[in-house]
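Title: Comparing notes on inverse folding

I've been comparing how different people in this forum approach sequence design from structure. To keep things fair, I'm posting one structure and asking everyone to reply with a full sequence. Here's the target:
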């Protein structure tokens, strides 16, 4: 058997392995353990596309498909699926070859076989292969109905949900179960994205997805885990078809509160260097989470809406300082909505806060201050009438305190502005006046600005007083 340490070139070794495995499928002359070893070696070579061309040809892909979906040895089949998944990932053109060879239905059948074998490895590998091939096929409708992929996906998600079914159980999935779930949710997202007219086929998965979201232990960076793919999977589904599951009667706020908890863990302060990684990750992966929250808020009512407003909008207590200055979730969201470190998400965050304010410009300004609201209103082409700003300047919070409409801070908490001249002696005032007189004269002589020295103007207007 050829190895990486042999003197032969990598290309010749890869070609030799492909030839051996092609012949083996026809005549079955390799013992199962040697077949697995050959496929394992081919898998190692195939991790790098350089000099691995024989794997990515039509003949190479067909050979891997035969071993993966038509062989009788399960270990060899799993190893061939690993090789195939790598090839489909590294060389996107092989996805079209896979479809043209007609192996989609066999891959779907392999995906549902994991239930018989209770094998997360099979779900993971078949799910990944199908996920990658969704980018190269127009036959998704046939997959969903004729090949029954919609049924198999729903069954898989319900099976993952059962892990969390025990009340007060701390049971969590194994690493392999989690990886399999990730591939299943990625496949669900792609299918609902490319075939939006069939999202109703997956409505029965909504309860299990929310169950997993609520009972799954959240890592410190949720958007680096399978939680991110779960959010994506929910994104395209018709949540209004299952209102009783999105807002269960025993606690209508549990699901929306969990989404806000994920948001809370994902958002850091732009002013804290320790939160740089958190905010970079959020800016890369946070848009689906914000969008899902907006969708849930849109169909929610009563308690759920109030829960969102209470967590995402500044409280009256926070008006002791200018809004956006503290470390609460509401403050961090305001900071990010205008931050240069959140170029992808800041517009979405501002839109979320606007919608939570009932999409009412005056209420939006009242909630977050005109300083934060002006950017979104300007980009949306919404002008706030001067009369509205005047009304806001006299409005008050639930404690009856008036607040600054620009900063959102309660007026009775704003620092008193001191007269800068109050602590200056007469001599200091005279020196300052002389300095300003000279400065204005210099500016006037440049000719750049047509300006009149205010001292000269006061003299002409007779506003000077002779002193003893």
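Reply #1:
Here's my take.
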């Amino acid at each position: 058997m050829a190895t990486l340490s042999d003197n032969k070139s990598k290309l010749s070794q890869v070609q030799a392995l492909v030839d051996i495995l092609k012949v083996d499928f026809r005549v079955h002359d390799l013992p199962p353990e040697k077949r697995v070893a050959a496929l394992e070696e081919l898998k190692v070579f195939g991790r790098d596309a350089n000099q691995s061309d024989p794997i990515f040809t039509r003949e190479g892909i067909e050979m891997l498909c035969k071993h993966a979906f038509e062989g009788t040895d399960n270990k060899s089949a799993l190893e061939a699926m690993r090789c195939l998944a790598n090839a489909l990932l590294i060389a996107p053109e092989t996805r079209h070859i896979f479809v043209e060879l007609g192996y989609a239905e066999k891959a779907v059948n392999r995906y549902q076989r994991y239930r018989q074998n209770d094998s997360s490895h099979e779900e993971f590998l078949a799910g990944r292969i199908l996920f990658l091939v969704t980018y190269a096929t127009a036959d998704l409708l046939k997959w969903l109905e004729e090949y029954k992929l919609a049924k198999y996906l729903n069954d898989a998600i319900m099976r993952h949900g059962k892990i969390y079914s025990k009340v007060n159980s701390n049971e969590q999935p194994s690493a392999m179960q989690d990886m399999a779930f990730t591939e299943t949710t990625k496949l669900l997202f792609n299918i609902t994205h490319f075939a939006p007219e069939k999202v109703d086929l997956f409505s029965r998965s909504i309860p299990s997805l929310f169950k997993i979201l609520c009972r799954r232990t959240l890592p410190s960076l949720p958007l680096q885990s399978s939680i991110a793919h779960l959010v994506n999977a929910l994104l395209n589904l018709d949540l209004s078809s299952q209102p009783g599951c999105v807002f269960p009667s025993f606690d209508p706020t549990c699901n929306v509160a969990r989404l806000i908890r994920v948001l809370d863990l994902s958002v850091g302060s732009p002013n804290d260097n320790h939160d740089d990684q958190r905010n970079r990750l959020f800016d890369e992966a946070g848009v689906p989470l914000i969008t899902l929250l907006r969708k849930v808020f849109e169909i929610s009512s009563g308690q759920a809406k109030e829960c969102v407003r209470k967590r995402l909008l500044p409280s009256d207590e926070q008006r002791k300082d200018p809004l956006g200055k503290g470390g609460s979730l509401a403050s961090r969201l305001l900071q990010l909505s205008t931050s240069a470190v959140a170029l992808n998400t800041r517009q979405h965050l501002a839109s979320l806060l606007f919608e939570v304010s009932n999409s009412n410009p005056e209420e939006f300004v009242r909630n977050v201050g005109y300083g934060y609201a002006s950017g979104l209103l300007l980009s949306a082409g919404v002008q706030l009438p001067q009369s509205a700003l005047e009304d806001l300047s006299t409005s008050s919070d639930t404690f009856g305190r008036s607040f600054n409409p620009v900063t959102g801070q309660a007026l009775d908490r704003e620092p008193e502005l001191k007269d800068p001249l109050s602590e200056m002696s007469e001599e200091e005032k005279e020196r300052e006046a002389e300095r300003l007189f000279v400065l204005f004269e210099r500016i006037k002589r440049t000719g750049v600005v047509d300006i009149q020295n205010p001292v000269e103007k006061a003299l002409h207007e007779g506003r000077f007083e002779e002193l003893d």
